[in-house]
Amino acid sequence: MPQSHLTETTTVKLVESGSPLQNLQSPQIYVLQLRQDDPRKCTAAKLVRFNLAKPLYRIRQMPRRGLTLNPFAPVHLLSIDRSQALAYGLVAIDCSWEKVQKAFSIHLPGRNVKLPTLLASNPVNYAKPHKLSSLEALAASLHIMGFQEAASKLLSVFKWGPNFLSLNQGPLDAYASASNEQELLNAESQYF
To answer: In this predicted model, what pLDDT tens digit does every residue of 107-128 receive, in sequence order?
Structure first.
């Protein structure tokens, strides 16, 4: 077993036991870049440039046991997914909204999870439900799993980024406190 995997496993055990290191840990962020958007406007490309996400260019590079954000997944991301994210990473698929159906029609490695309803704060889709940028999807995932500082750090790279948290604060906090799918769906119905 590679030594880096042993370190990740140890980190997960420390975080789960309530160690003071909990706030210092956050999952590795990956972005599968399908290069369908203007790179100057692409939120995922900017995260890569700022070394906040690791770029992936082929599906086979995706972590097999990571969490893959997929809007068509049968289950939602929950706060209990924190350990898996810490151990194996969180993956966003960066594609154009016009090609989203095709991009997610193929089998994607990892445990595919979707986000509950949230409003976009990006300038293109402001206040539209489910039209999140890759940045917003990653930040929402981090927030739901209890990595609020990491979520804020990602969002701070964009002028409009911090507005995502204020626009969705109530739902995000409710989703983060849901311990199962039914509780999350109940929280979602209270807001949307």
So the answer is: 788 999 999 999 999 998 999 9
